[in-house]
Design goal:
Blueprint: H1 6-22, H2 25-30, E1 36-37, E2 40-41, H3 42-62
Antiparallel strand pairs: 1-2
Helix pairs in contact: 1-3
Length: about 60
């Protein structure tokens, strides 16, 4: 098994911090509205969109040679 480089580890640490901020109360409260997007509550769109974006970014960071 290959050991990750320090730049990959640093990028993942920054992405983790971004994830903590994205799913913390003050940011989540911004999207807690009665409005809908595409018929889905905005809060759900934000949560699942941010989650999918974090997964895609982790895949992009890990997939680099």
């Amino acid at each position: 098994m290959k050991t990750p480089s320090t730049s990959t580890t640093a990028r993942l640490a920054v992405l983790f911090a971004i994830g903590l901020v994205a799913f913390n109360y003050p940011v989540i409260a911004l999207f807690d509205r009665a409005a809908t997007a595409f018929g889905i509550p905005v809060l759900y769109v934000y949560i699942f969109g941010a989650w999918a974006a974090l997964i895609a970014l982790v895949a992009a960071i890990i997939g680099r040679p």
